[in-house]
């Protein structure tokens, strides 16, 4: 990470031991509340440069408001971009922008005179969606780089050749440096090394007295060091214009470091009129001399289309050159670009290589990304254990997304032994930073009382928070909970389920279809139900596939289509669903939607019977009784009928009744036969009604009753039962 401005109060580095991220966050918040904005900014700066998203958001606000740091719209945009790129919570980015806009509006109302450099309105704070890393402009040098160099050559280098692309070259007149404001030595007495020694002793006026005449005489190193003094206010008043003038003088002589700082000044409009095209020119001059930060910023300029036409290929080239020289941020950016194919075709191998190089230098987010690759099996064999190790390292350094993943890992026992208490610990950390996925998993623990006391109310609040933020799993879970709560609104449940379904949650799509088919919480609509069943079925939801088969078979919401019904039933049956196997057997037995095939019917009935499907047991008994698709076996049929009694399948009850009536495979038992016929007849089964009528006509197993016999014959005859029609005709026409 690096700063984007030369002039900043944060150049003074503190070498104190860093506190744990959570403690540092608490300290920053406390300092801000007490009005110590400088301290708050220093803490946020440290955390932000380590990749802490919350700190990046807060630092963006401070730069925008000028609290604890000099007000700087570009710095604000830079850190807001960093945070938005690093965060999975886009709502937080929007809130940060709103905070900035609201505060600016409040300040404007309080001011009677205009400020010199107002922060931009929220629309000016753009947040690129694709590029995670740095921006803006420029990576200004770290503190040591801004001080006069300890080891500098006294040789005045010749100017480098101008770029071969004249379109990026503009001219900007730089006024002559102002007169010395401190006493200076005659040129003959001025010594560069003497000035350096005085500077190191903090005798800035003495250093100035040596360097100023040397700078005026054309010594590039002296010019650069004077620029640094004006930029930082060492012994002189901070003067951005004078700094830019001396940077320009040294840059014209080919000094790469000066060219870089001149480009920074031009890009940010510091001491010079803002000029992106000319900034690109000077970045290129420095980059061609292997200046790493210039390479990096040149990559940014091409990537964002500032001063040159937007060109991702050129952006990647310059980022990769900076990465090759060890720039950690460039290494991360190059990895990101290869991972998504920005500026070059997707190359996971190269992405992994650059992530690993950045990780070796301690880049937290690179470790997190590699953890995701191991978790998902991208570029590596899928390895939950390695993913957990990488997530844990990043989590220990305060990366919110890594804390979430560690929490999820403990919750699911993914890559580590399950530990609900530790899961809650990490999920609380990430949820506290508004990571909605973490809040979702924490809600599950709260609702189930895992690792924490059950708290249905807080669980519901977190689910709704995550659902409102757009987390589709939270939307599904909330909708499902509401659909099972008799006191809750069915339409509210449907609303959340549909939101989740629209984001592609397959289970939500199935439930939405079910609600539409049944008119639960929404107007009944078979055609719409079929659409959602189809989406869920395409994602492999078994019940959706089965119900889609039913809708096609019944012609509900679509034209009746037995072939499509058969297709979906077959798909489900092949996955082992007993109901689908039974339905498929029934279709093969009757030839409905498929060529009639008794052997296939028996095959699928047997599959369903193996899973205890009672109706399939009954139908298989019938196949054995008749010898359809199998060798005729009345004993086997009788046993299967007996097994299926609890299912009360009319055909099986009637067949078993006939076994008892006729004494087949069992001793004749008319009362048992009547009992079985009656159970089937009550379900409207015509053949059972006929047989029960016959028992009443002849008084077998019951008292003879011709009226009941006639009534039962009539019911069966109305269903076109031929034997009943014949018996009824005989009774009515003796």
Automatic annotation (TrEMBL):
Residue spans crossing the bilayer: none
Signal peptide region: 1-18
This protein's record includes keyword Magnesium: no
InterPro entries tied to this protein: Sel1-like, Sel1_AlgK, TPR-like_helical_dom_sf
Keyword annotations: Signal
Matches recorded under PANTHER family: ERAD-ASSOCIATED E3 UBIQUITIN-PROTEIN LIGASE COMPONENT HRD3, SEL-1-LIKE PROTEIN
Name of the protein described by the UniProt record: SEL1-like repeat protein
């Amino acid at each position: 990470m690096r700063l984007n401005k030369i002039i900043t109060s944060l150049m003074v580095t503190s070498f104190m031991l860093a506190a744990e991220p959570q403690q540092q966050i608490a300290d920053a918040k406390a300092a801000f509340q007490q009005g110590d904005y400088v301290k708050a900014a220093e803490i946020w700066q440290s955390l932000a440069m380590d990749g802490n998203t919350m700190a990046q958001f807060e630092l963006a606000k401070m730069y925008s408001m000028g609290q604890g740091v000099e007000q700087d719209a570009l710095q604000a945009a830079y850190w807001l971009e960093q945070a938005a790129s690093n965060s999975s919570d886009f709502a937080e980015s929007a809130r940060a922008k709103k905070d900035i806009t609201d505060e600016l509006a409040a300040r404007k109302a309080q001011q009677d005179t205009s400020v010199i450099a107002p922060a931009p309105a929220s629309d000016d704070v753009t947040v690129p969606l694709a590029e995670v890393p740095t921006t803006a402009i420029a990576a200004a040098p770290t503190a040591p780089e801004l001080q006069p160099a300890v080891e500098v050559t006294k040789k005045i280098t010749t100017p480098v050749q101008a770029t071969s692309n004249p379109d990026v070259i503009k001219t900007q007149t730089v006024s002559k440096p102002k007169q010395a404001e401190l006493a200076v030595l005659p040129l003959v007495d001025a010594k560069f090394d003497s000035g350096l020694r005085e500077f190191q002793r903090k005798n800035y006026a003495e250093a100035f007295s040596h360097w100023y005449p040397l700078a005026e005489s054309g010594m590039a190193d002296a010019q650069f060091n004077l620029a640094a003094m004006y930029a930082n206010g060492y012994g002189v008043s901070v003067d951005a214009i004078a700094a830019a003038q001396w940077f320009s003088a040294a840059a014209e002589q080919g000094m790469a470091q000066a060219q870089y700082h001149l480009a920074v000044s031009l890009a940010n409009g510091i001491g010079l009129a803002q000029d992106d095209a000319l900034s690109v020119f000077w970045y290129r001059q420095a980059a061609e001399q292997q200046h790493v930060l210039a390479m990096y910023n040149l990559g940014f300029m091409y990537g964002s289309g500032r001063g040159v036409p937007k060109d991702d290929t050129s952006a990647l080239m310059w980022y990769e050159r900076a990465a090759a020289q060890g720039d950690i941020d460039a290494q991360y950016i190059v990895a990101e670009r290869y991972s998504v194919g920005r500026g070059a075709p997707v190359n996971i191998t190269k992405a992994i290589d650059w992530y690993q190089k950045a990780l070796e230098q301690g880049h937290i987010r690179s470790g997190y990304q590699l953890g995701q690759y191991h978790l998902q099996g991208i570029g590596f064999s899928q390895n939950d254990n390695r993913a957990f190790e990488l997530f844990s390292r990043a989590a220990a350094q305060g990366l919110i997304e890594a804390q979430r993943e560690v929490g999820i890992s403990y919750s699911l026992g993914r890559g580590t032994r399950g530990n609900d208490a530790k899961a809650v610990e990490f999920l609380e950390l990430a949820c506290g930073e508004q990571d909605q996925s973490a809040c979702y998993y924490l809600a599950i623990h709260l609702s189930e009382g895992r690792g924490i006391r059950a708290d249905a109310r807080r669980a519901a609040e977190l689910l709704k928070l995550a659902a409102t933020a757009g987390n589709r799993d939270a939307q599904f879970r909330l909708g499902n909970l509401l659909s099972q709560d008799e006191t809750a609104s069915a339409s509210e449940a449907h609303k959340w389920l549909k939101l989740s379904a629209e984001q592609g949650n397959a289970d939500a799509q199935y439930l939405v279809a079910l609600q539409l088919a049944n008119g639960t919480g929404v107007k009944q609509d078979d055609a719409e139900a079929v659409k959602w069943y189809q989406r869920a079925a395409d994602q492999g939801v078994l019940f959706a596939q089965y119900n889609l088969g039913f809708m096609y078979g019944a012609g509900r919401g679509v034209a009746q289509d037995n072939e499509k019904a058969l297709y979906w039933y077959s798909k489900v049956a092949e996955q082992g669903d007993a109901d689908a196997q039974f339905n498929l057997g029934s279709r093969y037995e009757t030839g409905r939607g498929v060529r009639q095939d008794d052997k296939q019917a028996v095959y699928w009935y047997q599959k369903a019977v193996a899973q205890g499907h009672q109706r399939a047991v009954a139908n298989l008994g019938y196949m054995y009784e008749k010898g359809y698709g199998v060798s005729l076996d009345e004993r086997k049929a009788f046993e299967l009928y007996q097994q299926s009694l609890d299912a009360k399948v009319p055909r099986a009850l009637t067949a078993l009744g006939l076994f008892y009536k006729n004494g087949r495979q069992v001793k004749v038992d008319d009362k048992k036969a009547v009992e079985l016929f009656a159970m089937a007849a009550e379900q409207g089964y015509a053949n059972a009604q006929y047989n029960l009528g016959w028992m009443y006509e002849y008084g077998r197993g019951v008292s003879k009753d011709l009226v009941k016999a006639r009534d039962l014959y009539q019911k069966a005859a109305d269903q076109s039962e031929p034997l009943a029609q014949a018996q009824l005709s005989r009774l009515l026409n003796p």
